[in-house]
Amino acid sequence: MNLHPSSFQQEFYTGYSSVTPNFRSASTDTSSITCPLPPPKRMQAEALLPVNVREEIIVKDSCSGSCAQILRPFSIMLSLEDEGYLATSGISDIYETGETRSKAVTRYLSSLIDELLWFQQKKENLSAHLRKTYQTLQMYVVLV
Question: What pTM value is reported for the model?
């Protein structure tokens, strides 16, 4: 399986509706409000959107041409920022941004491949923290 934005929903997580908040229409009746309220900067439901990445998925990095397989499922957390979405997860210290959820996740997965390649090249000289990060990442993603 290759990573293509058009097939993103089917390949990388189950149920787009599971990550899309279900918003209810807010009432426009303001008669019960006695003092003006500032508009919220961001709706709470949009603060973090989990994207569940399934195991056995093959991810291809279009820049390097390298591929990786997901060994264990994990979640990528998306937060809505001013310029788009910010993608992070608990398996790595990296982050990526994208104009859409799909682009942020696609870039994040490609960055995991880049990170694995970098770790392999530098593994002899890694600090203790980076060695631990590398070991954690290897439990979830492997180059193929």
Answer: 0.67
